[in-house]
Amino acid sequence: MGISMFFSTTQLVILSVLFFSNSLAQECSAKTTHDVLCGLPEVVDAASTGTINFKPVHLVQGYEACKGDSAGKYRTADGTCNNVFNHGSANRPPRRLLPNAYDDGVNSPRTRDTRGAALPAATNVSRTVHPMKDVNKRFTIMLMQWGQFIDHDLTGFPISSEVDRSIKCCGPNGEALNFRPDRECFPILLTPEDAGVRFVGNCMEFARSVAARDPAGKKIIPREQVNSVTSFMDASMVYGSSEELQRELREETVGGQPGFLMKVSPSDLLPRNPEEDICIHRPGEFCFLAGDTRVNEQPGLATIHTVFVRLHNRIARELDLLRPNDTDEEIFQLTRKILIAIIQNIHYNEWLPIIIGRRTMREFGIQTGSRSQYVASVDPRITNAFSTAAFRFGHSLIPRQFVIGGRNRPLRELFNRPDELFNNFNDVLQSLVSPLRTQGAQTFDRFFTGEVTGHLFEPENNGKPSRGLDLVALNIQRGRDHGLPPYNKFRQFCGLPKLTRFDQLPADVALVFEQVYNSPDDIDLFSGIMSEPREPGQLVGGTLACLLGNQFHALKYGDRFYFETDRMPEGFTDDQLADIRRMTLAHVCCQVKAVLKVQSRAFEIPNNSNGFELCSDLRDAFIDLTLFQNF
């Protein structure tokens, strides 16, 4: 049942613009101290006037407004001054669509259901509702990989730690420790079905996300988390979310100043990370350094990072020839601006329509192909529901294995092993975009490969019970840590009917939910959205499409530099924009000279209607940088 079945045309026009602020009045009236958008729009009849008037948005006490250039041509590294009140900049709390569901309304994780009973263990929900099932369908692994790449551009919530080390919430043999809440522990206590069977002991490590603090250093009450990266789709995973990291990632000029090229290592791979112990690598090889610290998680992720660093350097070298009077800084910033636009075009024009469908794109006003207006009143910050549940849907797409070096490699062998790229970069990229039919992404559904539900970051165990982690259980526990309201609340937020009985769900889903939850009102958001029947023309269900549409609406209209903006100097000329729109992911993969051929729709398995094209042909269709010669 689609979103549009519950609203009139007029309501849909309004909601597509205003979903982001649906519950902010409640938050503002509660007089919380966290940084929320308290200027709500005055809604008029959009169908009759075609306009929506916004009240002024005010800076929340404690945070500084932009002190720099809020009308410049280029973005700052940390996202400041994109919005005059610095919404969306790095190291800010996320926004909430609904009031929190902490047990005490302030800080304690959600652990009780509507009857006051304990919620089911997260591993129990994972094992019962989200068992292992491997089904391949029509999409390449790149569909999953792009989602992870973009997620690391938008979200980065640090985990609590003690001085110079991570918090230990479980003992060395997997036993639960007597822990104090002030140590920020929230371990997953295993049921007898899991303890000693799927996992060692009866405790899985879990530390709470870092609590956000105001500029004076005081914890924000009620508890909020902190997004350490910029909320904007600004390629921060490539360039970093701070001036310091951005400088570290750039080649130096002869005079020691940051140059226009990004650093690379031999074989044109990512540069060496000076921290040697953050990944597993063979002698003579090393961990990679990138704009995001998670780059080393698995080879596919490091591969797409490498693709865009290579693309940056190709564009920068050509611009340097075309614009000989520019400084290195000017060449770097223009290259960065173009690369961000290419990423945004791929995301909104190729990837997102597959996920939420063309109809939902229209309902939220996020289709591409025409100029868009920047709305300063739109709060672009990442929502807690998006980062903690909705944008984790791609975990269902993760395959059981990758083809590397001509053989199938189980994913458990590849976690934290970026060294696989030293001899197999081209092979990994080819397997991401043009695999055999049996090597595509998993189907989106409530099922997950056992590689991530039992063997995540698993050390070698010689067939003994796993010391790995359960990604689904971690997602559920993280939602409870953040005080996310349950699934039913978000159904109502999205205009979908509240579930009052389990049998309102598909029979197979109702059966498993009844085994773990006492009421539909108790279903965790992540499990709920992963178990929805998909809507026609899209990959996901109604609530998930709503939450994704909501976020990408905010990231389009709340970003002063969104690539199709009608503003200058933030935007592009018509000719430049037309050329950027031609740049598909297939074009990008060919430009870095790592594959020989690729299908035109790189997120879909090649077939008769999506045939291969030779990269030698696509390279000739590279973006026309002469259009930027006098820009």
TrEMBL record:
<dbReference type="InterPro" id="IPR037120">
    <property type="entry name" value="Haem_peroxidase_sf_animal"/>
</dbReference>
<dbReference type="GO" id="GO:0006979">
    <property type="term" value="P:response to oxidative stress"/>
</dbReference>
<dbReference type="InterPro" id="IPR010255">
    <property type="entry name" value="Haem_peroxidase_sf"/>
</dbReference>
<dbReference type="GO" id="GO:0005576">
    <property type="term" value="C:extracellular region"/>
</dbReference>
<feature type="signal peptide">
    <location>
        <begin position="1"/>
        <end position="25"/>
    </location>
</feature>
<keyword id="KW-0325">Glycoprotein</keyword>
<dbReference type="GO" id="GO:0004601">
    <property type="term" value="F:peroxidase activity"/>
</dbReference>
<keyword id="KW-0408">Iron</keyword>
<dbReference type="Pfam" id="PF03098">
    <property type="entry name" value="An_peroxidase"/>
</dbReference>
<protein>
    <recommendedName>
        <fullName>Peroxinectin</fullName>
    </recommendedName>
</protein>
<dbReference type="GO" id="GO:0020037">
    <property type="term" value="F:heme binding"/>
</dbReference>
<keyword id="KW-0964">Secreted</keyword>
<keyword id="KW-0479">Metal-binding</keyword>
<dbReference type="InterPro" id="IPR019791">
    <property type="entry name" value="Haem_peroxidase_animal"/>
</dbReference>
<keyword id="KW-0349">Heme</keyword>
<feature type="binding site" description="axial binding residue">
    <location>
        <position position="395"/>
    </location>
    <ligand>
        <name>heme b</name>
    </ligand>
</feature>
<keyword id="KW-0732">Signal</keyword>
<dbReference type="GO" id="GO:0046872">
    <property type="term" value="F:metal ion binding"/>
</dbReference>
